[in-house]
Amino acid sequence: MVAVIDYDAGNIRSVEKAMIALGEDVVVTRDENEIMSADHVILPGVGAFGEAMEKLHKYGLTRVIRNVVNQGTPFLGICLGLQLLFESSEECEGVEGLGILKGHIVKLPEDQGLKIPHVGWNCLRYPNQGRLFEDIPEEPYVYFVHSYYLRAEEPEIVTATTEYAALIHASVEKGNVFACQFHPEKSSDTGMRILKNFLSISC
């Protein structure tokens, strides 16, 4: 079973539909027992960093997420879900993220003549080998919607990058924790292959 964590963020149902399309048993939930017993756990989301952290605390999910990660369950953060795994975000100064991974979320620069937020398709490069991208050739196109991006402190965890006004750490992997700034559930066949690769992982 796949548990998609429900904390009142946007885009959760799109991830649920992608799991159903892949033939998975999926539950959208904030129930601790359902999350802890799942084979794979996904933290999706579109929205503001500070509000999202407030909701995770409100529903007691910060502890649950840490426990899931600590027990070794494959865990995937998508878009805002990636950002929440890190320590802080310029979007909401003074609000601590989950801190499961080291790094910070910063605002895309507005002096490059590019539209912010970044909405659209960009190609990926692979600075390090990642299990999410197994059998996916370099420079696949995936779909982004964001105004803030990751600067990971550990370069070895960065498995995909792209460029849009800055060098964006687009995907990371450390142990059983995976995350994508882009939306695999909206990235056509490539995105579905990424999700299938995640679901094939047993840590």
Structural commentary:
- This protein has 203 residues and is an alpha/beta fold.
- It has a single domain, classed as Rossmann fold (3-Layer(aba) Sandwich).
- Helix content is 26%, strand content 29%.
- The protein is built from six helices and twelve strands.
- The strands form three sheets. It has a seven-stranded mixed beta sheet with strand order 2-1-3-4-12-11-10. The chain has a three-stranded mixed beta sheet with strand order 5-6-9.
- A hairpin with a 3-residue loop joins strand 10 and strand 11.
- The longest helix is centred in the C-terminal third of the chain and has 12 residues.
- The protein is globular, with a radius of gyration of 15 Å.
- The two termini are 15 Å apart.
Features:
203 residues, alpha/beta, Rossmann fold, seven-stranded mixed sheet, three-stranded mixed sheet, 26% helix
